[in-house]
Amino acid sequence: MIHFGGDYNPEQWPEKVWTADVELMRRAGVNLVTVGVFAWARLQPAPDEFDFGWLDRVLGLLGDGGIGVCLATPTASPPPWFTRRHPDAMPVTADGVRLTHGSRDTYCVNAPAYRTACARITGELAARYARHDAVRLWHVHNEYGTTCYCDHCAAAFRSWLADRYGDLAGLNDAWSTGFWSQRYGDWAEVLPPRATQYLGNPAHLLDYRRFVSDAMLAHYLSQRSILRASDAPVTTNFVLGGWVPVDHARWASEVDLVAIDDYPSSVGGHLAERAFAADRARGWARAAGHDDGRWLLMEHAPGAVRDAASGVVRPLDPGQARAAALTYLDRGAVGVMYFQWRQSRGGAEQWHPAIVPHQGPDTPIFAEISALGAEVARREPVTVTAAAALIHDEQTMWAWQAPGLDYEAICRRWHVAIGGIVDVVPPSVPLDGYRLVVAPVLYLLPAAGHRALRDYVRGGGTLVLTFASGLVDDCCRATPGALDDLIGARVVRHVPLLPGETVPIDGLDAVGRGWIDDLEPAGATVLLRAADGRPVLLEHRYGAGVVRYLATDLDDPRPGLPTDSGRPGR
Amino acid sequence: MIHFGGDYNPEQWPEKVWTADVELMRRAGVNLVTVGVFAWARLQPAPDEFDFGWLDRVLGLLGDGGIGVCLATPTASPPPWFTRRHPDAMPVTADGVRLTHGSRDTYCVNAPAYRTACARITGELAARYARHDAVRLWHVHNEYGTTCYCDHCAAAFRSWLADRYGDLAGLNDAWSTGFWSQRYGDWAEVLPPRATQYLGNPAHLLDYRRFVSDAMLAHYLSQRSILRASDAPVTTNFVLGGWVPVDHARWASEVDLVAIDDYPSSVGGHLAERAFAADRARGWARAAGHDDGRWLLMEHAPGAVRDAASGVVRPLDPGQARAAALTYLDRGAVGVMYFQWRQSRGGAEQWHPAIVPHQGPDTPIFAEISALGAEVARREPVTVTAAAALIHDEQTMWAWQAPGLDYEAICRRWHVAIGGIVDVVPPSVPLDGYRLVVAPVLYLLPAAGHRALRDYVRGGGTLVLTFASGLVDDCCRATPGALDDLIGARVVRHVPLLPGETVPIDGLDAVGRGWIDDLEPAGATVLLRAADGRPVLLEHRYGAGVVRYLATDLDDPRPGLPTDSGRPGR
Amino acid sequence: MIHFGGDYNPEQWPEKVWTADVELMRRAGVNLVTVGVFAWARLQPAPDEFDFGWLDRVLGLLGDGGIGVCLATPTASPPPWFTRRHPDAMPVTADGVRLTHGSRDTYCVNAPAYRTACARITGELAARYARHDAVRLWHVHNEYGTTCYCDHCAAAFRSWLADRYGDLAGLNDAWSTGFWSQRYGDWAEVLPPRATQYLGNPAHLLDYRRFVSDAMLAHYLSQRSILRASDAPVTTNFVLGGWVPVDHARWASEVDLVAIDDYPSSVGGHLAERAFAADRARGWARAAGHDDGRWLLMEHAPGAVRDAASGVVRPLDPGQARAAALTYLDRGAVGVMYFQWRQSRGGAEQWHPAIVPHQGPDTPIFAEISALGAEVARREPVTVTAAAALIHDEQTMWAWQAPGLDYEAICRRWHVAIGGIVDVVPPSVPLDGYRLVVAPVLYLLPAAGHRALRDYVRGGGTLVLTFASGLVDDCCRATPGALDDLIGARVVRHVPLLPGETVPIDGLDAVGRGWIDDLEPAGATVLLRAADGRPVLLEHRYGAGVVRYLATDLDDPRPGLPTDSGRPGR
Predict the structure, then answer these.
(1) Nearest 5°: phi and psi at C3?
(2) pLDDT at B305 over 50
(3) Model's pTM, two decimal places?
């Protein structure tokens, strides 16, 4: 069975609407709804007052209607009473501004009062609904992603660093504090990367993102341990985006089912973006050893895309909602869920698309989603196998330093170039099953990563690397020449290019942009050269395998792919 | 008689200049000058020290020269001694930054110390000049517009909300706090919309603007009650702009004469902008029942426009200052006043245009303004009647949510399209006298607004509505279908368009942009269709009148107007 | 001998690298390296702990290798222990955000604790190395430039103002506080220009920049007095840029050798930018009476330019590093130094170009710099004489108010137009030795400046002035007509132009942009007119000399130059 449904927020509606909703859900083929994501203030209207009666009735109605429940802990949005009592649990920006309630996601996961309050409401939910028939899945929190720079975080960061580096000597070495007189002599001197006069230390900044990820993971694990009172699996919904300080590859092994929210950024390219997101989700699931890489699409917008450049939410043409759903399902999703079921009358997202819009069910979107529900009901989840993998690394995304070159955009272009179904995986995943591995601009690469790439090729694999690969280790320290033996050439010099600057390539109706390496081949064959003679594409036999190296960035990187990978090559 | 003159700041000049100024004013036909706007530090150089001697002399000179005085209270710019003694009366930004003196407008109208200090200086002025012969008009404060988020404001906001909504249940309902767990359980939890993690609540944001308007109005009323010791009328100068948290329609009935400052934003379009501003001012005056809609232009720049896009202050070609003045006078202004009389030697606005520039009176601008003064002296204020009204609503402007679509620009294009003299009125104005009412994108519409539109058409009026009308009530809650019966069609779906996306229209050399509604006509006739068949212009007989509905945005919206309104139609 | 070398940061590297470095430096022809700039945390790892052993060894190795040392005081980057103990010595932004360590340059020069700590470490260095053989030059601090708005600064600012203006009456007059009720009645009311509600007072803003410059100068002088224990000359490296609150003309007389850091902003124009910077440095040196205008290039990037618009650091083509160095040397530099010797493995500037890049010395850049070292070793510093001077004024740069017109860009275009070697000088320099003086847009001009220009022309000089000259005095007060007699015309009106607006000029294949004055010639001859008849270029005989006045801005201003200056004229 495929899960089909979405976020349902009955706390925004009078009870008579609930009955109508269940009936409409049945018409639409909905079989799973996420309940309770932002219901904290309703469930616990005051510090010592709980109200579960309404939720009992909602779950009863849904259960009676044959609709399963993904029950959420409501901790992503603490109620106003919490703020008032615990201002120290509100997040603080790098500039020292303490935020307050009035939106959502306003909390510091390292604040003791917040941790306690979260454990309490989660405990109440677990105690009451652990064995509820309708509950199929637990949904911890929502879209983890609030970074904070407060003093609670400073203390927790120091502990995290002490665990990671042992002592200050280790920290000073890892962070290269010899530069700019940053050497720490006492743990108390170590702070979050708060506002400072000029450029920050990249290792400091990167470790803070890792720390925030781990701090949020601890928050998640604390709730998961409480929810284990239930037999239902536990997960949280990963939100994608460069700003998100969550190391999803690491989290994937702590959720019982990888679940993502997917909001593409452009109307024209939404299906390609969805395919990439789906392949990433499956890559995380596979990396964590989950059940043949199956995963759940927890949220997407029904029949509309928010154009990131303009902020316009553009309804899609008929058929595109179906095309979107099939893109996910064909890539291993066990369910396609929407945000949200019924469009909110008020609040910040009152115009966010919904299955039941303000105009009601007699609307094209309800019709299209209902038809899709019927179609999906006849399908089963598919197990996907891919011959090719694309390495996409959130550590590299966070550490990336190349003005004018967008790591995400480069990876997405390679994803399209490879074509078909590709496992998009973190570098930690075993590579030996793949016929082709493409690792674009893998800027950050620890020693283990070097070994993994070498082992894969030595064992017969075909690897495609590019410029800007293996430039730093996991502490952002330069590692010059680290991959020279593998690519069969010395990278003598990096030449970042100016906006608009191009490098014509011999025999190719394409130009390089953004970057070109100066290479001295040492074992590799030159497949393509720039018009000025500089090598731009190398091929190197290494062990039983072969490595390609593309020294510049192409709008369409297909020429970088080997032809024997079954894809267009030179 | 037409008032002719401008802001005069003798406190910036030695006394010998005053005599020369009066002589020059007479040459220029000046008959009214605004004195004292920023003179607080000069009038009250220390907390317990007042100096009115200089002002006595200034008013004496002016009076002797036959020049009337619009006497201002100086409260828009408290002196540095005030800041030092009352830091809690300085405004605080949403980020928590407490501002300090060094500019102007730096105050919190809800701070008790500020209210007290304002009452005191106003009291002194009233006591001394209430019966002064030269004083023709009182000018309270200047360009109200400072928003503050401090704790004084928080407390006052709570009182204001309690008055508006009665209890917390009312507030929670009005603000749709079921969304994102924002339910308030105690008044003390309610705050100004300070910095928070993500999107704010639109009802919260809108009510804060209303509250700020009312708080400033209370400040104004407190001064007005003191100035009633004089028989001269009392007003304040409205400043126009999307950032201004003043509900001018509401304020208009509290001033004895509607007065606006007008600073167009573009050189090419300055006359059209002035016409729109003038028609708005008359609309407010008419809404408040003032004297046939007469109003005063309190400030504009002599012979120059600040191009908002570039910040360049561009002198206008000869004749344009006259054209500007006639635009205002032809639309009911009882006076045209300039900022300022004599260009300041120093300070932030030393390059702001003036009637007497740094180069002195032997300059083209002084000559042009003087000639205009002579011409104006032969005119009398005109009473303007308009057959058409354009509804322009500051509540909609504040609540407006449509990325890429500029509410002000849309209204201005309709204003041009209707042509001639149009009353630009708030929705509260009685509509029955108009042959044509155009209400573009009237996003926010409370129940009373729905009734007023229906009554107008039912009684035989001709109404033009557009897409994005009546989408929310006065608490920003969606009101789907609210106008369907009036337009004779069901609005099935809103389709916001991407930047650059266009909708070709059959039989029209024009395209729709920005938005198109999907409509199901139910009684209305389709007058225009998109090339793909979607209706874009409907006409519906309703009662004794007729309603047009334009479902998209046209660069030139004239095709939306009925031909029998005497304007170009289809 | 020409100094050749760069910044050397041995504290970032193990000792074995030091030996290799000295050997490589000899190969590269390096004869001077700057040591210790960011070594505070290494030299003083704790408040009462010093470690000079490593520096002894470094200086020993360098001295033994025949390489001179420019020894820096490390005060530009206080260690984390300092921050922890003295949070009040961290800088505060205008918004009130107190910054913390984590970068560099994070200090307040007015904080007593910082001044004390700086004196202490400088004293230790002076005591130990004053007579060290290798030390050729002292380098105080690094790139002074941190502006702070804290309470220490407020107190120091008041003292500085009291010194400058005597009493509050003087201050109020100088700052034109009659405008906007800003009159100060007590020194305690005077504050740094912290965040306020609207536009600040230009005189307040300008004086704050001057004050910051003087406060930093006092910090510099305090270190210089300590370092006078040594016979070696003392300097600091000037960093160029509009944001820098340092009055270099004033500082030049306090350094024993003018030294600048030069980072051009565009790849295409880097040589012209370098020529301009070199001519500025020589101008400051000449103004301060230093040794025929000789100066030192303390830093530039080896063979690369950071494109300011994109942030891309673009390696230059072969030969360009040489061309850059010769540009400096031909314009009087006594040395060309690079930042930095060896590329840092980690830290914020790990990708900053270096002589020895990550890839090591077997690289094109090391080869090019080494060849250049050999070439430079055969040269001696040259004494440069210039027939023409360009007045470039940092006070005008700070005070400049003309949206859309870039003071720096205008001056650079004139510099190119004059061509060849030009002394770029502050207005304080004696002008009588020059055949031609060009003073573009000299907005701010005190009475002494007026006199100097008049005296120069009266004595037979040829002066070129432009629009926007002499508009304000040194307190930013308008000085209308101040230069009318000199240019032989009355400037009746300034007409700033809109972006894209052009003024065609008769007989010239060029258009005016940005600004045009309306002029009434009174003695001057009109050399060029706009197509509409307005004069755009005047020539006026004044005393024994001649003045040209160009009333608009030309992309190539050569037509403004007199032909008898030996440069292309009309």
Answers:
(1) -70, 135
(2) yes
(3) 0.97
